[in-house]
Design brief:
The protein has 452 residues and is α+β, with helices and mostly antiparallel strands. The protein has helices at residues 44-51, 67-86, 100-106, 108-111, 134-144, 190-210, 262-266, 307-310, 333-343, 371-386, 400-410, 420-425, 443-451, and strands at 23-25, 55-59, 62-65, 90-91, 97-99, 117-120, 126-129, 153-162, 177-187, 215-219, 229-236, 242-247, 270-272, 288-303, 313-315, 321-323, 325-332, 345-346, 349-350, 361-365, 391-394, 414-418, 428-432, 438-441. It is built from 13 helices and 24 strands. The strands form six sheets. Strands 4, 8, 9, 10, 11, 12, 13, 14 and 17 form a nine-stranded mixed β-sheet that branches. A six-stranded mixed β-sheet has the order 1-21-20-22-23-24, with helices on both faces. The protein binds one RNA strand of 77 nucleotides through strand 9, strand 14, strand 17, helix 9 and helix 11.
Length: 452
RNA sequence: CGGGGCGUAGCGCAGCCGGGUAGCGCAUCUGCUUUGGGAGCAGAGGGUCGGCGGUUCGAAUCCGCCCGCCCCGACCA
């Protein structure tokens, strides 16, 4: 087949033959936006995710991820991955389907109830779609780790989970199937487990901050996972489900330093409304903040709850065999997509923080039928691609109003507008989605602003 | 799981009470005009009315059963 017969697809192919990787042509892309609000969506993030073509429902609490939504999901996943790796955790991938036997060993097979999706294979073996992976990771650990010298160890994966919620709702914020990062720490003793816990605590603050979010860790019940040291991380959003009180110090944390005093951070005050007692609150009024939050992460220390019954032991320096001390650390990756939209949107649509935006730039060619406009736009595409700027190039024949409305709905941080006016004067318009400010610049200046 | 509601064209909805040839807006397709904020005109296509059964000469409409989805409550990354 001659090269010219191969469909170009959505990637741009510039005249010199290089395949462009950063720029996507809207006319060849798959972006099914909805002009009207779907009837089933109640909350703003769910409405916007459906309207902006991020997801499509398959069944109650189960979603298809369409191209734009999938890009965001991958961005979030990658930030989580990088911060886990930075914290010394090691990525693996455990299966979605697990044998029931492990759960019978840990004693959770009966405890977990109807939330766990139980299935049987063709040989009538009992299996389940994992709602979490403590048993699975303990099985990996116990078959290979025998000595305290191999500790500490932290294994994590980013995998789909299924919890058969009684009532899934709010789109991906409370789906039945969801993508979660779950990490599991193994230590020889409590002191080590506490260090592992604090290490994850800091990693979580860094992870959420990189996404443009303020995360408030609050002391939590440890629930069915068990244990006695637990924090849940709520990100602030005006539409959040719970009301939280917290020390303003959380907003000013310096997380970049190598020697962050994590233990001090774990003691900063934060509480959900139900547990907040104004009389006994240790934070002075001028430093107390009240806001709404959405839970996006939860960390637990639970000691030997799983290692003891499942026989995950190591031999210590004294020659004695002990069950390892464990913790587990979850981040709702798919939930974060909805949570970030709850935190960042306006009446026109989504306003993505740059680190998680599906594309950094929306390049609007107002007149694809005009040779000058198109030449200018395609030249800009090539330059943006060379600079590695992820760009969605709107080369469609829609009218200006429809193009702007779509771009504002999908919320890319930067809009570059090329029209007949600018094509004559050599200027393009650079517009910020966040504050709406627009400036007329030459192509060089645009590149500089976006890359400098 | 208890309570409430909804399933009619891709999306949003009307029609159902009082059974009688399935409609509207948007979207889609064709043509012409238009082109910096969701265009105009003309034409066209698209429906097992969620499913099964019943009543009836005749069912989107009445009755029964089932399925799916949404909302409110008790639980959750």
């Amino acid at each position: 087949m001659p090269l010219s017969a191969i469909p170009e697809g959505s990637r741009l192919r510039p005249p010199d033959g290089d395949v462009v990787m950063s720029v996507v042509r809207l006319s060849r892309y798959f972006l099914p936006v909805l002009r009207e609000d779907p009837a089933e969506a109640e909350i703003v993030s769910h409405r916007l995710m459906l309207r902006a073509g991020l997801i499509q429902q398959a069944a109650a609490g189960i979603y298809n991820w369409l191209p734009l939504g999938f890009r965001v999901l991958k961005k979030i996943e990658q930030i989580v991955r990088e911060e886990m790796d930075r914290a010394g955790a090691i990525e693996i991938l455990m299966p979605t389907i697990q044998p029931a036997q492990w759960w019978k060993e840990s004693g959770r097979y009966d405890d977990y109830g109807k939330e766990m999706l139980r299935i049987r294979d063709r040989h009538d073996r009992e299996m389940l779609y994992g709602p979490t992976n403590e048993e699975n990771v303990v099985d990996i650990f116990r078959r290979h780790v025998k000595s305290y010298r191999q500790l500490p160890l932290n294994l994590y994966h980013i995998q789909w989970k299924f919890r058969d919620e009684i009532r899934p709702r709010f789109g991906v914020m409370r789906g039945r199937e969801f993508l979660m990062k779950d990490a599991y720490s193994f230590d020889y003793d409590f002191a080590g487990a506490k260090r592992s816990y604090e290490n994850m605590f800091l990693a979580y603050l860094r992870t959420f901050r990189r996404m443009g979010l303020t995360a408030i860790p609050m002391v939590a019940e440890s629930g069915p996972i068990g244990g006695n040291m637990s924090h849940e991380f709520q990100i602030l959003a005006s539409t959040g489900e719970s009301v939280v009180y917290y020390d303003a110090a959380f907003e000013e944390l310096d997380l970049a330093a190598e020697d962050v005093e994590v233990e001090a951070l774990t003691r900063l005050y934060a509480a959900v409304e139900e547990k907040h007692d104004p009389e006994r609150c240790p934070v002075p009024a001028e430093r107390l903040r009240k806001a709404r939050g959405i839970e996006v992460g939860h960390i637990f220390y639970f000691g030997t709850k799983y290692s003891a019954p499942m026989g995950a032991t190591v031999t210590g320096p004294d020659g004695r065999e002990v069950a390892v001390e464990m913790g587990s650390y979850g981040i709702g990756v798919s939930r974060l997509v909805g949570a970030i939209i709850e935190a960042y949107h306006d009446e026109r649509g989504i306003v993505w923080p740059e680190p998680v935006a599906p594309f950094r730039v929306g390049l609007v060619n107002l007149r694809p039928d005009d040779a000058d406009c198109t030449a200018m736009a395609e030249a800009m595409c090539t330059r943006l691609d060379r600079a590695g700027v992820e760009t969605l190039y709107d080369d469609t024949q829609e009218r200006a109003g429809a193009k702007f409305a779509t771009m504002e709905l999908i919320g890319l941080p930067w809009l570059v507008v090329i029209g007949p006016r600018g094509a004559r004067s050599g200027l393009v318009e650079l517009r910020s989605r966040r504050d709406g400010t627009a400036t007329e610049l030459g192509p060089d200046a645009v590149l500089q602003r976006l890359c400098g």
